[in-house]
């Protein structure tokens, strides 16, 4: 019998099955649904006592752990926006997001306070609204938020929203903001359809987290899993064999990952893979980067028809596909969800017939999406009610979506988005750089890696490549730093100054 959205939710499960394990952290410590609900309730009361009101924002720079879920749940039932910030980002990047999202309160892991302190100074976050998990000199202890607060649900519960940041081609991250509904928090109906299409059902499942929760998909699958009644098992940088160990130990039923992890699992010797019992798996969801057809086919042969895939972005999920459906149409990223629409448009915004390649525009089940404080970018991405994130693809005769190019300039490395303009801006800040271009090149392990092509200034000295590497490491998160830097006398540009990236990519991609 189908489960209605209103019958789901961590807080409801905490009342009906309080002792069920909700989260198992990276150290193996378990917290029950009732314990997690009480902590979230205490945080909700604390937010109200500190003056936060619906529409305000809480930001967090934390590793995978209980505080992420406590904050996510508390903001969800308090009408607040929650912005998790990538803890790998450099100080200026953290400061920009904290300021742009208009964070009213920020929670940071103690080991990150040295980097985050100056960033929050620059963002204008007052000291009294900064909290450190584990305590740190000059910061308020995160546990202060719980002291003396009731464990009961707060009055006037109203749904909050997640506001994530996704980089843009201008190099500045943009906040994807959804309008608040004003209704009580509950699992949105379109999530029920989305999860069902990925073979994830409500009940006593176990969801394994393999990626940082600040990313859109890992955080969403873990949060929905909790609200479906699943136990969420956290990991941090698990190697391929450890992934299999966790699946066997916890009888994992679902997980989300990226093709790079699938590729690494397949590289394990067959005798190592066969050592572990993976029969509990019902859905191994992947997305975030193109998955080579042969890699996916081999994974299905090994694990069975449990591989599922979806297409979407921070702006919303659009399509889904099960193993059997994919095997009938190798390479597809899925068929539109019931609340979604996909169109392929030409450069004039006109719909293209089946089989013709164009820009992928979509409408997901989520309405009221905007790029926060950037109406121009919002308008540029829209075509009526449809939105695009710059992907190129086509629909077949039956409406199944195939992608040809994830984005024209975007570099996808291990499922993480890297935007060339941001790296180029850092390179161009160096006095010995006259011009710079960044492109993605094939990488057997990561899918793509970052190549920087630099035109030195006339007075550049020897050893520039090493100095630029250090220069980038000071300004960018590690995953954005170029793996390789090449020096060229001139970069190809049009008469109007537009960089001809295709000429730089061609030697590496066979034309």
From TrEMBL:
The upper taxonomy is: Bacteria, Bacillati, Actinomycetota, Actinomycetes, Pseudonocardiales
Q: Per the database record, which ranges form the AMP-dependent synthetase/ligase domain?
A: 13-365
Domain (AMP-binding enzyme C-terminal) spans 422-498
Q: What is this protein's name?
A: AMP-binding protein
Q: Which InterPro entries match?
A: AMP-bd_C, AMP-bd_C_sf, AMP-binding_CS, AMP-dep_synth/lig_dom, ANL_N_sf, ATP-dep_AMP-bd_enzyme
Output the Pfam families linked to this UniProt entry: AMP-binding (PF00501), AMP-binding_C (PF13193)
* PROSITE patterns assigned to the protein according to its UniProt record, in alphabetical order: AMP_BINDING
Q: Give the organism, scientific name.
A: Saccharopolyspora hirsuta
Alphabetized GO MF terms? acid-thiol ligase activity
